[in-house]
Specification:
mainly alpha
């Protein structure tokens, strides 16, 4: 089931992906991730966020991949409130020290115009790499602070 959801999602066949997902007897986090990323990567970020909320309501615990997908959807939609909700979930699940999560948060906050939180996450990252530095630089540049970058 998960492979089919993934395949249909990558092909842009979202109705088919949803149909297969709905036929999975007990969807796991990988099933949910496949469906959420299908919507997110096909330009349906709002639907991806709604599915994420549904996943949480059904008691499914997100993993790092889920959080990465949702942060990207929030960044693309400039959905700051949903991004803050995702940040809280990242903290609740102990993912905040992960470099990918930190970079995703910097990117999301930067794209949403919240430089204060972007910088705070960046400053508190236990490790940084070239991608996290680039995310912080891009946040400054996208928000009219090229000299700070």
């Amino acid at each position: 089931g998960n492979a089919l959801v993934n395949m249909y999602g990558k092909s842009g066949c979202l109705d088919d992906a949803r149909y297969v997902f709905d036929k999975i007897h007990q969807p796991n986090v990988f099933s949910w991730n496949a469906l959420i990323v299908a919507y997110s990567q096909n330009g349906h970020g709002k639907k991806a966020i709604r599915l994420f909320r549904q996943m949480l309501l059904e008691g499914m615990k997100p993993n790092k991949v889920t959080c990465t997908i949702i942060l990207d959807a929030c960044a693309c939609l400039i959905a700051l409130e949903e991004g803050k909700m995702s940040h809280a979930i990242i903290i609740d699940n102990g993912f905040e020290s992960d470099i990918v999560m930190g970079t995703g948060l910097v990117n999301m906050y930067g794209r949403c115009g919240n430089l204060g939180d972007a910088r705070s996450v960046f400053d508190n990252m236990p490790q940084r790499n070239v991608v996290s530095w680039n995310a912080m630089i891009a946040a400054y540049c996208q928000n009219g602070h090229g000299k700070k970058a």
